[in-house]
Design brief:
The chain is α+β, with helices and mostly antiparallel strands and about 600 residues long. The protein has 4 domains: about 65-225, Beta-Lactamase (2-Layer Sandwich); about 260-355, Beta-Lactamase (2-Layer Sandwich); about 360-445, Orthogonal Bundle (Helix Hairpins), CATH 1.10.287.130; about 455-605, Histidine kinase-like ATPase, C-terminal domain (Heat Shock Protein 90). About 50% of the residues lie in helices and about 20% in strands. It has helices at about 1-25, 35-60, 65-80, 150-155, 200-250, 270-275, 280-285, 300-310, 355-415, 420-450, 465-480, 500-515, 565-570, 575-585; strands at about 85-95, 95-105, 115, 135-140, 160-170, 180-190, 255-260, 265-270, 315-325, 330-340, 345-355, 460-465, 485-490, 495-500, 525-530, 535-540, 590-595, 595-605. The strands form 4 sheets. It has a 6-stranded antiparallel β-sheet with strand order 3-2-1-6-5-4. A 5-stranded antiparallel β-sheet has the order 8-7-11-10-9, sandwiched between helices. The two termini are about 115 Å apart.
Length: about 600
């Protein structure tokens, strides 16, 4: 608009000058008519230039697009100055530039888009020196201007004969704004030399100012538009993210509930509506206590969870029972996460809730079934123990009565006047049956003491290669009577720290069992080996324990099914007593039975050397 104002002032000035001229003509008839006409033509040309300048300014101001501004400027300037080429060069680096806009008559070289180096830069000019006179020059003849060879050759490539250049400066003004040399506005005469008028230079400078203003406006508009586009893009991304989030929330198998800083419902998902029965409209803005939502017994636990979130806990997991709208109890697992502000105050809480009612019911059914199974096992065990007890009582009763009956018969025969020879035989029977009765009573008493953990243990250093032959000596004659081979396999001296009586009792029981169940012609081997522990084994052939019976072989009162309990005698206490004695002296025992062979292996710790 400033150009329009200048044009209006110039018009008024021209009218005033024309009036003065006419008054001078009327006073002096001696003024040549040709001079008057020449003056009038100059005034008309000046008015025409001012109009064209205003039109260029108007076209520049019509657009906020930088390229449109520059195209309008170079086209208007070329027509205004009647030159062969007008171009705008923008600096893109130190002493480098690029032709962004050009208006050139047909037939002359096109420079648009060219990247140039020192093309329009006279000697002594530097980018950044906005106030330097070197950036404003009018060259009437490039061959007489004293240009450098490089500068002259570049102008020759563009067929330039005369050149007029003014700077385009951004931020220039009286408001203290920092200035920046943006580029150059250039006019070329290619057909011939040209002497530039001061008015032409002035017009080009005025246009460079308008171009500078338009560039700044276009830049501000472009920046504002870019920021607006970025904001729109961010808003669109945010809308997409919210849309995706809402989609996932509404289609999640988990219940999604959001609470505000006052623990009021601010989001109630579709799954929450389906599980609990209340709609979002009914729940938004409600406190949990506003509805019969939490089972009474779980209220203290829920309040404790809420207090921990209010006090700064950012996440917790809890379980409680909730009511649905219809009153059904729903078991829920709550995953709560709290959003806190910079001061640590609660902003909101997000709850992901899983309905675990089916899982809880299944677990309750499983526990009930497990309890039932345990009860059934206990009942079965009680029946088994009862049967064992009955069998034990029958066996003990038989085992106790048999020696007494034999003793009673032997006494009766002795009282009947038996010969001395027979009396000696009956006396031998009395001693054997008395020992048998004593052994049975001792087994029962020892078992009771082991059960009550009252059997004393007296460890001592024992040489097994000496002790074992002594223990097995009474079994030699018995083995001979039953046609058995009894072998002791001890390769070297082995010392053991243990209780002598317990060890003797264990070996006697194991060898006695082997004698019972080894058929005539069979072999029994008692062996000792020393590795990281001391192993004492009792092996026999000719008999095998069924694999399904092995886990029960050391149980109290247990006797292998199918065996004739009365033919071999015994109460079912022997191996159980062995297992407890081995444990008592700090060892362990196991049994292996296959291929018609059976082995009992007792492992005892090595003695601690002083």
């Amino acid at each position: 608009m400033r150009l329009m104002d200048d044009l209006e002032k110039t018009k008024e000035q021209l009218i005033a000058e024309l009036t003065v001229l006419r008054q001078g003509i009327s006073r002096s008839a001696a003024t040549p008519e040709s001079k008057i006409q020449q003056y009038i033509d100059e005034l008309r040309n000046q008015a025409k230039r001012e109009r064209m300048l205003a039109q260029i300014d108007f076209r520049i101001r019509q657009s906020l697009n930088l390229q449109s501004i520059l195209d309008a400027a170079v086209d208007g300037v070329r027509k205004l100055l009647q030159v062969d080429r007008v171009a705008v060069c923008q600096f893109v680096g130190q002493a480098n530039g690029k032709i962004l806009a050009e208006s050139v008559l047909q037939g002359w070289t096109i420079a648009l888009g060219s990247e140039v180096s020192e093309l329009y830069f006279p000697t002594g000019s530097e980018v950044g020196q906005v106030s330097s006179p070197a950036w404003r020059w009018a060259i009437a003849d490039v061959y007489k201007a004293g240009l450098s060879d490089i500068h002259l050759k570049m102008l020759e490539r563009l067929q330039v004969k005369a050149s007029l250049v003014v700077p385009i400066v951004l931020g220039a003004g009286g408001d203290g704004t920092a200035t920046q040399l943006w580029g150059l506005l250039i006019a070329h005469q290619c057909r011939s030399e040209r002497y530039w008028q001061e008015t032409e230079v002035d017009l080009l400078e005025r246009l460079s100012v308008q171009i500078s203003i338009a560039i700044q406006h276009a830049g501000a508009f472009a920046q504002a538009n870019a920021e607006l586009q970025e904001r729109r893009r961010a808003e669109e991304e945010l809308r997409d993210a919210l849309q995706k989030l809402n989609f996932h929330v509404e289609n999640s198998p988990l219940i999604v509930i959001e609470w505000d800083r006052n623990v009021q419902v601010s989001r109630w998902s579709g799954q929450a509506e389906r599980i609990f029965g209340w709609t979002a409209q009914e729940m938004i803005g409600k406190y949990p206590q506003d509805l019969r939502f939490i089972q009474e017994e779980d209220q203290p636990q829920v309040e404790q969870v809420l207090n921990s979130l209010r006090e700064g806990s950012q996440r917790n997991i809890s379980r409680n029972r909730n009511y649905s709208k219809s009153g059904t109890i729903i078991h829920c697992e709550w995953y709560n996460s709290a959003l806190l502000d910079s001061a640590g105050n609660l902003v909101s809480v997000l709850s992901l809730v899983q309905d675990i009612t089916a899982r809880v019911e299944a677990e309750e059914h499983r526990l009930a079934a497990e309890r039932t199974r345990q009860m059934e096992l206990q009942v079965a065990e009680m029946h088994k123990l009862s049967n064992l007890k009955d069998e034990f009582l029958n066996t003990v009763s038989h085992e106790l009565r048999t020696p007494l009956a034999n003793m009673k018969l032997a006494i009766h025969m002795m009282e009947s006047g038996a010969t001395p020879e027979k009396q000696q035989r009956y006396l031998h029977i009395l001693k054997g049956e008395c020992l048998r009765e004593t052994s049975l009573v001792n087994d029962l008493l020892d078992f009771q003491r082991l059960e009550a953990d009252r059997l004393p243990i007296t460890p001592e250093l024992i040489e097994l290669d000496v002790l074992i032959p002594r223990i097995l000596a009474p079994f030699v004659s018995r083995a001979d009577q039953r046609q058995l081979n009894l072998i002791i396999d001890i390769q070297t001296t082995v010392k053991l720290s243990s209780d002598r009586q317990c060890l003797e009792r264990i070996l006697c029981e194991l060898v006695n069992n082997a004698c019972k169940y080894t058929p005539p012609g069979g072999t029994i081997v008692v062996g000792v080996q020393q590795r990281d522990v001391i192993e004492i084994s009792v092996w026999n052939d000719g008999s095998e324990i069924p694999q399904e019976e092995i886990p029960h072989i050391f149980e109290t009162f247990y006797r292998i099914a199918g065996n004739d309990h009365w033919s071999q005698g015994g109460t079912g206490l022997g191996l159980s007593l062995v297992k407890k004695l081995v444990t008592r002296i700090g060892g362990c025992i196991q049994v292996e039975s296959r291929a018609n062979e059976t082995t009992f292996i007792m492992k005892l710790p090595l003695p601690v050397l002083a």
